[in-house]
Amino acid sequence: PGLQEGSFGMTVETAEIIADGTGLTPRVDERIIEVNYGAWEGKTFAEIMAQDGEAFHAWDARRDDFIVEER
Fold this sequence. Notes:
This protein is mainly alpha-helical. The chain is 44% helix and 8% strand.
C-alpha cells in the first residue's frame, strides 16, 4: 500500500494532509490529473442532465477534448 499523488494542485495538498495523518510518504504519479468541470463542478450526472442535457451528451461522446464552459 502506498500514497500516490498527482504532480500539481489539490492532489499534492490532499496527499500531504493524508501523509501527515498516516506517516505514509506520497509518490508522484503523473497519470493522476485534476479535471475542472466548469459550471458542472460539484453536480451529479442527473443534475447536469436535467440542466444541460444536450451539452452532457456532447461531453459524453467526446470526453477527451470537450470543454465545459463556465457560466
